[in-house]
Each structure stands twice: as structure tokens, then as C-alpha cells.
Design brief:
The chain is mostly helical and about 375 residues long. It has 15 helices and six strands. The strands form two sheets. A three-stranded antiparallel sheet has the order 2-1-6, with no helix packed on it. The chain has a three-stranded antiparallel sheet with strand order 3-5-4, with helices on both faces. The protein is elongated.
């Protein structure tokens, strides 16, 4: 029976596909993607305090992944909301912060449990959506082109069926005897999760968190810092088109090459960004050591300015560097030097690391022809 986008895709085949996905082109691409990922992992280990990367790159991955779902917030609004205590936060920014929380919490749970399971996937979507969402149990979910209203895909239905499909994904993730390159498996896992579409909302973001956690589980990353959603934003039309190619025509090679290229390109981009953060930190340490009063300067203080773009007195106090009054003096000295710029948010003062912000806020390339997808769940007839 030919594929019908209006009919629930309960014919979704299990993993692994019954075709040869390890073609010569795919195997070659897996080698270069793996090399780029190894270089990213290596440079990440040169950062003196890796939490510097968590609150910068993870936030930006959260922003980009949410933007794919048409949840848009500005970089400044996101960084402000992450540090401010009494700022009114708009709904889109809240959703991005929830994604960041889910990614980081998922990383912690993976380190604790060592497994990627259906229960973990459910925990992730519940953190993203801030509700008690579980596996879809009612019909009516469709993936539609937001511009035309056309149904492009109707995911499988039946809670038990969806759980069986997710169990198959779990088994495939943890199967070590198949000899398949883990980056090739990543492409297959990501397609399958998208095709199962187990939740009424939040599938795309949950799937992209699973991508990063899978790379951590396979020891290809130490921290969940790969900026993978950047590539999908820039090539969104191809992303959706190639997913449909697998579903409608069993075209695995183009999809797998796309995902391998996404890993390679974003690993190189993230590596370069980490190098620039590291170099900027070193330059700032040198400048502050030379120009700050001796009683103010410490490596611990300057490194703290790179943990997030906005710093405040409470961060210095919580780090045990100084008491409140002294911390305020330190921040004023750094502002005088031009390293920080003060901004009043509500009743508190935030201090922006100007050069770090400028580095992080450089815009992504946009593809204006991207199509937008939305998942719609309607009551069963």
C-alpha cells in the first residue's frame, strides 16, 4: 500500500531498516563527521571550568531548537531571563528556558542511569512542556504545513503501539553487536523518533535532546554542547523534505548524509566558538590582572563572568568569592574597566560581559525559503 499522509502511519517499520544504510558515501561521511566531533570533544576539555560552556552553548542550543518549532525569543531576552530574579518573562522565552532545563536535567539523569529509555523521553517532554504529558493515547494528531494547512504526515496511533515502537528504539540504541557506526545510528534514531511522534507536542525538541544525550552516552561528547539545531535552522526545508523521503520512498542515504553533515558542520562551528570563548577568557584574565586593583582581581572572579553572559552580586556571593558589599565593589570595578556593562532589570542590577555577549549573539544564517511545520491534535471524530 502506498504512503498516505492522511492515514496514521502504523506501517512504520522497526529499526534497523531492511535496506543497506551503510553505503560507501555514508561510511566516508561518518569518518569525517566523527573526526570533527572528536576535535570538538578535545577542545572542550581545554576549558578550565566546563560549566562555562553549559550556560552559554546549551542556552543557544535551546534557543535554536525552539526556533525550529517557531518559538522565537531574542538572545538578549533569553540571557536576561536566565540571570534575572524578578523579570517578567514572555511565554516564548520561558519555553526556551524549559528546554535548557530539560537538556541539562536529561544529561544528569543519563549520567545517573546510563540508559536512554522511554521513561526518560517522557521526563524530558514533561520538563519542556511543564505538564504531565505522556504517550499519546487519543487519535487526531497530524503534522501540517503551517503555511498551506496541508497534512504532510499522520503519525502512528495507539498508546500500546507507540510504546512498542519506542521500545524498539531503546533496543536499537543500546545494541552494541550490530557494529554500526554510532553516528549513522544517530540518523536512524532521530528519524524513527520523529516518525513515531509519541507526544501531542514537544516531539521535535525532545528528539533533538535525545540526539545530544545519545552522543554523550556513546562517549563522543563529554558535555551536551553540540549546537546541532543550528544546522537544522539553516537547512530546515531539506530537513523536512529528507524525512519525508524516508517515509514515502525509503530513501535512507540522503537523510543519513544530511544528519552526518549536520554533525560535522555543527561540531566544527561549536569547536570554533569554544576556542573563541577560551581565547576571550584568556585575554580578559590578562587584561584584568594588569588593570584591576590587586584586592579585586582573582582568576575565580573573572572565570565567573564567563559562566553566563549576565552576572550579578548574588552569583559572586553564591560562588563564595566575596560578601555582598564587596561583590558590588568588584562588579563596579569591572564596569569601570569596560569589561562589564550595568543594566537594571526590575529591582536588581545585572552586569553584561560585553565581549562574551557579542561573540555569542552573532546571528545564524537564515534560509528564507524554509517551510514551517506544526503538530496539530484535534478531537477524534
Amino acid at each position: 500500500m502506498s504512503f498516505d499522509p492522511n492515514r496514521p502511519y502504523n506501517d512504520l517499520p522497526p529499526l534497523p531498516p531492511q535496506v543497506n544504510v551503510e553505503t560507501t558515501a555514508v561510511l566516508k561521511k561518518a569518518i569525517t563527521a566523527g573526526r570533527a566531533l572528536a576535535e570538538l570533544k578535545g577542545v572542550g576539555e581545554t576549558i578550565p571550568n566546563q560549566s562555562i560552556l553549559v550556560n552559554t552553548l546549551v542556552l543557544q542550543e535551546a534557543q535554536a531548537s525552539s526556533e525550529i518549532e517557531n518559538i522565537i525569543t531574542s538572545t538578549d531576552a533569553l540571557f536576561e531571563a536566565f540571570s534575572a530574579s524578578d523579570k517578567e518573562v514572555d511565554p516564548a522565552t520561558k519555553e526556551v528556558l524549559h528546554y535548557r532545563e530539560a537538556l541539562w536535567r536529561g544529561y544528569g539523569l543519563l549520567k545517573e542511569r546510563g540508559l536512554l529509555t522511554t521513561n526518560l523521553f517522557i521526563e524530558l517532554v514533561q520538563m519542556i512542556k511543564k505538564n504531565q504529558a505522556g504517550i499519546r493515547s487519543t487519535p487526531g494528531t497530524k503534522v501540517m504545513n503551517a503555511g498551506t494547512g496541508e497534512t504532510v504526515y499522520t503519525p502512528p496511533e495507539g498508546a500500546g503501539f507507540l510504546r512498542d515502537k519506542l521500545h524498539n528504539v531503546e533496543v536499537f540504541i543500546h545494541e552494541e553487536r550490530d557494529g554500526m557506526d554510532p553516528l549513522i545510528k544517530l540518523a536512524l534514531i532521530h528519524y524513527q523518533f520523529e516518525a513515531i511522534h509519541p507526544f501531542t507536542d514537544g516531539n521535535g525538541r525532545t528528539g533533538r535532546i535525545i540526539n545530544i544525550l545519545y552522543l554523550v552516552q556513546k562517549d563522543l561528547l563529554n558535555l551536551p554542547v553540540l549546537y546541532l539545531s543550528k544546522h537544522i535552522i539553516e537547512q530546515k526545508a531539506d530537513y523536512y523534505s529528507l524525512i519525508r523521503g524516508v517515509t514515502e520512498r525509503n530513501e535512507w542515504e540522503p537523510w543519513t548524509l544530511y544528519m552526518l553533515d549536520a554533525v560535522e558542520q555543527t561540531a566544527a562551528f561549536t569547536r570554533e566558538r569554544i576556542v573563541r570563548i577560551r581565547d576571550l577568557l584568556a585575554e580578559t584574565l590578562t587584561e584584568c590582572k594588569e588593570r584591576l586593583p590587586r584586592k579585586v582581581y582573582s582568576e575565580e572572579l573573572i572565570e565567573l563572568l564567563f559562566h553566563r553572559p549576565y552576572t550579578k552580586v548574588e552569583h559572586i556571593v553564591e560562588a563564595g568569592i566575596a560578601e555582598r558589599k564587596t561583590a558590588a565593589v568588584y562588579l563596579s570595578e569591572l564596569e569601570r574597566l569596560g569589561v562589564l556593562r550595568k543594566k537594571k532589570i526590575g529591582r536588581e542590577n545585572l552586569y553584561l560581559n560585553v565581549r562574551l555577549y557579542d561573540l555569542l549573539a552573532r546571528p545564524l544564517t537564515r534560509n528564507n525559503t524554509d517551510e514551517k511545520m506544526q503538530t496539530v491534535t484535534s478531537p477524534a471524530p
